[in-house]
Model the fold of this input.
Amino acid sequence: MRPAVMVLDEPTSQLDAVATGVVFEALETLRAQGVTVILFEHRLERPARCADRVLILNEGRIAADGPPADVLTDPRLAEWGVGSGPAALHHGRTPRRRAWPVGVGPSAAGDPGGGRGRIHRLAQEHENRRRHVMVLRVDSLSHRYPNGTTALADVSLTVRAGERVAVVGPNGAGKSTLARHLIGIARPTSGTVTVDGRDAAGLEIAELARSVGFVFQNPDDQLHAATVAKEVGFGPRNLGFPADRRTALTQWALRVTGLTGEANSHPRHLSFGERKRVAFASVLAMDTPIIVLDEPTTGQDHRSVVLLEELIADRHERGRTILAITHDTDFCAENFDRVVVLSEGRVRWDGPVERWLEGDRNESTSAFEQPQMARLGRRLGWPTPVATVDSFLDQLTAHTAAR
Ligand code: ADP
Done:
């Protein structure tokens, strides 16, 4: 259509690194041809490199307007809820502390897992982890869609209790199809899926939902109730929890996701990022031992990513197993222990996150942008690879001491 002005609303939020690069190259070309490009973004690193001008919108007002070098170094950024990448997320946050809203951590008043039951469960979970109980097992799983597309080919994978696993891979790799098998909305063409020691083939979706909570990539595929509170309360009711537990879980999930104030809102009246938080809250309220998140950082602003990281850390501390599909290598580096790389329906790599991030000559990492901290460490010429803010700070301390 060759417009004079192009307006883009988070155009790359669900794209892999290669596709993101293609989009930004195209935008550069358009700009060179005199097209005005207006980009709405949460992630600031690329815009910081290529934009002429950055505007910050906060609470319906323009809070700042100027060249990236001025606006993105403004000390009020955090106040505006804006940040870019792990360094900003971890700003003033060592060790990990509760950010926003309060009450996620173990002492959170009203946590439905509190009290004697909680102590018992923590002990049990510790024991599970010690024994390395297998909670998910995928054996030679293949899936062919009715149109003939083979989305998964001979995938095998085991996940133990308490693990935090990131599933990464280019668009179309089969990640979502794999996740859908874990909750029974896709069924194997061949192979088996075992959840909590039971063959998923013999279990109804409703039964699998006791073990696996799934946060969809698109919240609109998940949300159906007329209010946020009803939406979040649906899972615990459906699972047949007693009324007091149901209420406690619902209120807790609303509170820790910062949604208490929206309890009576219609989910449709919320932003995409907020609807995604409602979807996460409704899964938290089911208190499942396994949580699967499909692209959880998509459309989330700085504050919401901080919140998500806190919640993942909290659930991990309580022995839950977390599996996330993500394109975000910074998010992987900071929050996960293990990475599984899928491409063209096959597992290409499976191992500790540090090894995946360090192996920049490894074929499995070539399609991914290295985390910010890794790129910074390399630019500084450090011989030991770093991937997280913490490992970066450790190296920096070592280098300073050596001088
Ligand atoms: P990813 O989550 O890694 O982007 P998906 O699991 O969504 O990958 O898709 C894997 C492959 O299966 C892709 O080639 C995609 O086009 C195809 N696919 C996904 N859903 C369907 C469907 N409902 N019908 C046919 N093909 C599908």
